[in-house]
Amino acid sequence: MPKARVAPDLEMHYLIDDFTDPWKKAETILMIHGNAERGSAWYGWVPHLAREFRVVRPDTRGFGESTVMPRDFKWSLDLVIDDYLELMRQLGIARFHLIAAKLGGTIARHFAARCPDQVQTLTVVGTPPPKWDRLGAKAVHSTEELEKSGVETWARKNMAKRLGSNFPAEGVEYWTKFMGKTAASTMIGFGESVPYVDITGDLPNIKCPTLVMTTEASALGSVESTREWQVMIPNSELRIIPGDSYHVAATDADRCAQETLQFILKHRQ
Predict the structure, then answer these.
(1) Which of 73, 60, 65, 66 is nearest to 31 (CA)?
(2) 32: closest CA among 107, 132, 112?
(3) Quick check: 53 pLDDT over 90?
């Protein structure tokens, strides 16, 4: 179980999948998972990507097997990005392609704008708009619910919107329990801050080729509203996947991975 001490308060767990030809120098993909997940969430993508690229799948600070964060931890996008950068530095990787899902896409868009010399391409899948209005009552309710009932109950309550109407019941149960393993203290601190960071100003500063994927009827926003922020990214493309899930990286992993692979191969430098 590989871990790296990337900050005084953080041992970051990560997975590396690399089935590239050993005599070639492989480019790297860094994958950022969503809220209440971990790097293993990308299981359906790995077979498509790892033959062509070295794939690095960390557990974000506080999540999965990485160090749990206390409830009062002071979260910021830049702090989380610093964790990833230090992991990549320790792995000897200077440049990489970036793929992210759900709230990971908020982190990733800021990441690409901040680090244009390191991020070669960006793919965001089922990600929120760049600015979410914070509904104080909703945030408080979520905190109270997490404290009272735990993360699994919270996840179960919202899973239908997350995975849409066509996902099998067994898959819904798997994802509910998978997300439910997340520490409540991490969820409360992360959920009270990161989702509400306004990254609108970052979009015009993303210089790398960017692929945005969403579904026809995502609960995170219509195709039209997604296109409104996607076109603010200079060299970007929008792909619409049939369906009504917003965790399309999970519900349509094969389709999304294939689209992403072709995009990266087209734009690799």
Answers:
(1) 60
(2) 107
(3) yes
Written as six digits, the tokens of 94 are: 């200077």
Determine the residue type at 175.
W
* CA nearest to 2, candidates 83, 63, 85, 87: 87
> What is the C-alpha to C-alpha distance for residues 250 and 178, in angstroms, rounded to an integer?
12
List the domain range (segments joined by +) for residue 104.
3-267
- Kindly report the average pLDDT of the chain as a whole number: 94
DSSP three-state, residue 34: coil
Q: Beta partners for 12?
A: 4
User: Cα(first)–Cα(last) distance of the chain, in Å?
Assistant: 32
**Could you give the strand order of the β-sheet that contains 119-125, starting from the edge strand earlier in sequence?**
3-7, 10-17, 54-58, 28-32, 96-101, 119-125, 210-215, 236-241
Tell me the chain's radius of gyration from C-alpha atoms.
17
* CB neighbour list of residue 79: distance below 8 Å, 6 or more residues apart: 61
The predicted pLDDT at position 268 comes to: 82
Number of domains in the chain: 1
Distance from chain centroid for Cα 239 = 17
What distances in angstroms separate CA 136 from CA 142, 144, 189, 261, one per listed residue?
Answer: 10, 12, 14, 39
Q: What's the CA gap between 259 and 151, in Å, rounded?
A: 32
* CATH number of the domain where residue 37 is located: 3.40.50.1820
**Phi/psi at 183 (5° precision):** -65, 135
User: If pLDDT is split at 50, 70 and 90, which confidence band does 269 have?
Assistant: low
